[in-house]
Write a structure and sequence with these properties.
With 158 residues, this protein is α+β, with helices and mostly antiparallel strands. Helices cover 32% and strands 27% of the residues. A hairpin with a 6-residue loop joins strand 2 and strand 3.
């Protein structure tokens, strides 16, 4: 998992929120449940320098991963950790995506495509992170994906 670290200037959007981080996480979980997601889990990793929080869930057998950025507000002489800002930003992003689902602009998997979780060497990684990692190769047209489809009932030879 690759959590981003953001340092925002005081007065920037969301820095004045009074909504606790835990409430934002709970509201996101409720939105996901309303849209038929299951196996929802809140993951907290306290091993490193920062406490990292993620939500993993499934819908129709597809795993998804939402990673909350570690958010600081730059004050005059120091940075102050403010995860409530991260909670509101992610809450509003998920809410906007799910509105597109509600009004039939996108289906759930299209709206949440960037959050699809795929196996990575250090644990799950989002499709968005994979695409961003290979951005240069994609721009050059050299991103190679091969699919092999066999007719039903035909097995691949060893």
């Amino acid at each position: 998992m690759t959590h981003k670290i953001a340092v925002l200037k005081a007065g920037y959007n969301y820095t004045g929120t009074d909504v606790p981080f835990e409430r934002s996480v709970g509201q996101i979980q409720a939105m996901l449940m309303k849209h038929g997601c299951d196996r929802i889990g809140i993951l907290t990793d306290r091993k490193g320098e920062h406490v990292l929080t993620s939500i993993m869930f499934e819908k129709a057998g597809i795993p998804y991963l939402i990673e909350f950025p570690v958010t600081y507000i730059q004050q005059k002489t120091q940075k102050k950790l403010e995860m409530k800002v991260s909670g509101r930003i992610i809450h509003d992003r998920i809410k906007a995506l799910l509105i597109d689902v509600d009004i039939n602009i996108l289906d759930f998997s299209q709206a949440m495509m960037g959050f699809i979780a795929l196996p990575g060497p250090g644990g799950p990684v989002t499709l968005q992170e994979i695409v961003l990692t290979d951005r240069d190769r994609i721009a050059q047209g050299s991103f190679k994906i091969e699919y092999t489809a066999l007719p039903k009932g035909v097995e691949e030879e060893p």
